Amino acid sequence: MNLLRKYWQDLGLFIGILVCIFVSMNWGTVPRINSILWLSFVAILLHQFEEYRWPGYFPGVFNTVLFKSESPERYPLNQQSAMIINVGIAYLFYLLPVFFPSVVWLGMAPVLMGFFQIIFHGIVLNIKAKKIYNPGMFTAIFVHLPIGIWYINFVYKHDVVSLMDWILSTIYFVIAVYIFIVKGNTWLKNKNSVQIFSQHQLGTYKRR
């Protein structure tokens, strides 16, 4: 568990590279919507790598800027909760649509999550931190956004999306945010957690 807790984001990058190789090698045979959904899954893996490994100081930003934590190395987000929340988002919320590509609302919800990341990283965190960048912003804008637009354009071009898909995807997205992000941080927070973030993951937002 300690090994996974320390390297889950690196494992994600490795899996993302393998998926990209698979998609590129089977570009002409795999249905296009499947390829888009696979790349959407890769997007979240790259996003998490940017947040937690390189440059990797998202935990410091999150705990200090949003929650004014006096113990940013462990509260409210800690290494254990970060792993559980992010692994759940990537390997459940983002990966599930890959196996059900015909269920448009299932694939649309991660797209909405990607757009949410743009607002969260590109606007909310930057305003609060008074910065022009925070870990996660680059992949949100340059990976999540184009893939999301690609997916929406594809389903409209092939006339497979309906108003009900938008409604269901929005509901599913809101539920996912509530469970994984809002409640996940509430359920797993621990002021005495021993699963602390490294100095690298805190960046300049170290314990006061």
Automatic annotation (TrEMBL):
Keywords: Membrane, Transmembrane, Transmembrane helix. The chain crosses the membrane at residues 7-27, 106-125, 132-152, 164-182. It comes from the Bacteria. It holds the Pfam family HXXEE. InterPro entries: HXXEE (IPR025671). The keyword Membrane applies. This is HXXEE domain-containing protein. It comes from Paenibacillus helianthi.
